[in-house]
Amino acid sequence: MIYLLTMMMIALPPAVYIETYDLNNPTYDEILLEAIHNCRGVNPEKVDIDLLKQLIEIEKEFNVPPELRGMILAAACQESAYNPKAKGDRKFSKSKKKPMAIGILQLWPIYEKMYPGLDRANPHDAAMGWMKHIIKQLPKIKKRCGYTTEAKIWVAAWVTGIRYKKPGGRCREVPNHYRLLKKWHKNIKIKRANGC
Predict the structure, then answer these.
(1) Chain centre distance of CA 71
(2) What residue ranges of the chain have pLDDT lower than 50?
(3) Domain locations in the chain?
């Protein structure tokens, strides 16, 4: 029973998000600026800032570790350049013409089966499904990988959630989105150090 309650607590987002400021981790306002100005192929003047703010609000619901603030924005940047109408991964379809990945986070049809009612083309639905799927991986990752730091557990859950299953898991891997996120975090630290 205690195990079941623990699993439920891990899978459910907290009721209230409170952002804390510290010298080692960026705020969501700082992340937003990086996402607007440092997403390859995106014109900062044409970014739908309200959409990015909505994605941040969804991320906050899941109480992401401070070291990973902005993970949804990094994924959305790399997957679709923030385009909710993006379609991709045609090479994996039987006809080679039908897109397998749809929407801002390029979710595959399996998400609609795992999360009934989810519309992959709807940014809110896509972000909620994406985050729920990563949260769902946390207990398995904690047990399999043996990590004790929250950020490492989350990164392993992130890469496990977005890639195909692999024998032995993906404990030592990181998603490409994470590399972009680390770059944004580094840029923020440099700006802070320079008083910007």
Answers:
(1) 4
(2) 1-10
(3) 19-191
